[in-house]
Amino acid sequence: MDFFIHRAFQITETPFTDRIDDAIIALYGVIGLGVMVISRREVLQFRREMFRPIAAGFAAMLVSVVCDTLSNGYELAVQLTGDPASAKALHDWLSVSDGAFTLLAEAFFVAAFYAGWRQAGAGGGAAAGGAVGLR
Predict the structure, then answer these.
(1) Which residue from 59, 55, 58, 71 is spatially nearest to 21, judged by alpha carbons?
(2) Confidence at 39, pLDDT banded by 50, 70, 90
(3) For 14, phi and psi rounded to 5 degrees?
């Protein structure tokens, strides 16, 4: 995504602009939390089933963004380890962890929405607070 952003907006790549995609992913999380706050009355109807997987999903998303931000270059890893070989290993682990935590976050969100869907279906239709057509 960094390459596309630099090319589309014709900006020179710097350590700061190289982290724009990290900020975009973090913004997705902030927007998601904002939608949940705005829709809190509806969301609270499903808190029993959905709260834990959604909380775990946001936590995994945060860890993913941190890993992605830290793995955008070797500079920080070299400062932390003081050894280029160790820095490369740390960088590689952070890169892999970023992808793993992204998948984990997505799995938690899917699980939360599935739990909400099941709870809505058990509600007996729209008049009883459930959703129509979920059975």
Answers:
(1) 71
(2) confident
(3) -130, 165
Taking CA atoms, 87 is separated from 22, 71, 77, in Å, by 21, 10, 5
Taking the domains of the chain in order of start, what are their residue ranges? Answer: 35-120
Among residues 55, 40, 52, 95, which one has the least CA distance to residue 72?
Answer: 95
pTM: 0.71
Q: What is the DSSP string of the chain?
A: -HHHHHHHHT----TTGGGHHHHHHHHHHHHHHHHHHHTHHHHHTTHHHHHHHHHHHHHHHHHHHHHHHHTS-SHHHHHHHS-HHHHHHHHHHHHHHHHHHHHHHHHHHHHHHHHHHHHHHHTTSGGGTS-TT--
Q: What is the pLDDT of residues 44-94, one digit of tens each?
A: 888 888 889 999 999 999 999 889 888 887 888 888 888 889 989 998 999
Amino acid at 19: R
